[in-house]
Amino acid sequence: MLVESALTALLSQIISCPLKDDLTSLAPFLMRFFPSDLHRQQFDHLQKSRRLTLSGTGNLNAKAYLLSELVRNLDDKLSTLFWVIEDAKEGDKTCEDFRFWSQVPVHNFTLPEGRQLTDLEKMLRLYTVLRPERKVVVIDPQTFFAAYPSRQDIEKSTLRLRVGDTLDSVAVINQLLEIGYEFSPDDFLPPGSYCKQGGLLNIYIPTLSSPVKVELDGAQISGLYEYDQETQQLARKHESIDVVPLKFARENAHVLDFLGARDLVVNDEIDLSPEFAQKMDEFFHEEPGNEVPYLVSFTAFPEESDQHYFYLYYLSILKFQDVYDFLNDLQEKWKAKWKVMIFTRHFEELKALLREEKIPFSSPEDFNDKVFLHIEDAHRFVHPPQSFQNPQYKVAVLGDREIFDFRQIRRKTSKIQRKINLEFLRSLKDGDYVVHVDHGIGKFVGIVQQLFEG
After folding, report:
1. pLDDT per residue over 297-318, tens digit each?
2. Nearest Cα to Cα of residue 340 among 275, 282, 289, 391
3. What is the reported pTM?
């Protein structure tokens, strides 16, 4: 029997990824803050050749940023982006990182190691893929290369109900049982079940958000309505309904067999078995008149002969030594016209520090994409984003792990103390021996003057 609570949890998992806050409200601001044409050369190449190989893409968050820009660039040319990741345990984090940067729906189809898809799970995933709207699917190789029924078998087994058609109740119920639906003795239907009461046949088709009420006038269908199970009120009216099958006698297809020219596959450094590697090569081998999906490959070791290869300069960020190192870096990026985002759990402290140092910044309550720095409260997110920077494009994302111990702010040297230290340094002569607090005995060789705040 179908277990209602388990199916409800399954549908919730397929529809969205776990979040601590509604990131869809944040994504438009992040999309606007960084320039939109940084990867124009690479994206133009992809649209022309339908292939792109990238290295130097940094960590997961940098890849999410890059792919969100790609989705925005392709716009209505894209239906489904399949982001194939090696580690299924990174599924939730991958979803959330992508949602930092995009409002396009993202679905987590990864599975824990050793766990197999049930028939219902397979079909729900497949029907999600077949929906025409633009979306991103995060998936692991096991699920991506799982066996599915063919498109022809799905169409052959689909039960089509239309207003005005004559309905043989016994034949329809037998067909429902044959394609995987189960009888529910309760009026409250779990997905994948049906019940019949008098002149009504209720079916919960898992691809719909609510059950369907099939009204019968004798043997004729007089109405098709989605309805609210709590209130029993009729909602959306339909002229026809496709009751999709949930199980099949054979499964001889793969997700690849359902992809078309508006789909995109991202191979995120996947170590494929020889069998699947050969299948991928055969599938993406272009033939005249056969336009295959886009293919983007992340790799650490590109082939010399790869004509679709580009190196991007996304780098990790070393931890700053102290507050002064951090502030100096911000000052330099400000002068060099970088765009910087900071996600911190010390939001109020950082705002106070930036105001004291007269460093302009944007924040959620006062967003300004014209300034070089934007800060966000990391408490809003289950997984604060990883830091990255790109010196070629002059963009950076920082987190608490990289900046410094915020307790240093509280014991920051006062301006008076800094003036005393400066006077002491000016009294030194070349060749004087000094004792450095961190590096020990050394010889003084002079002072280098630097320009700050303009």
Report:
1. 999 888 888 999 999 999 988 8
2. 391
3. 0.77
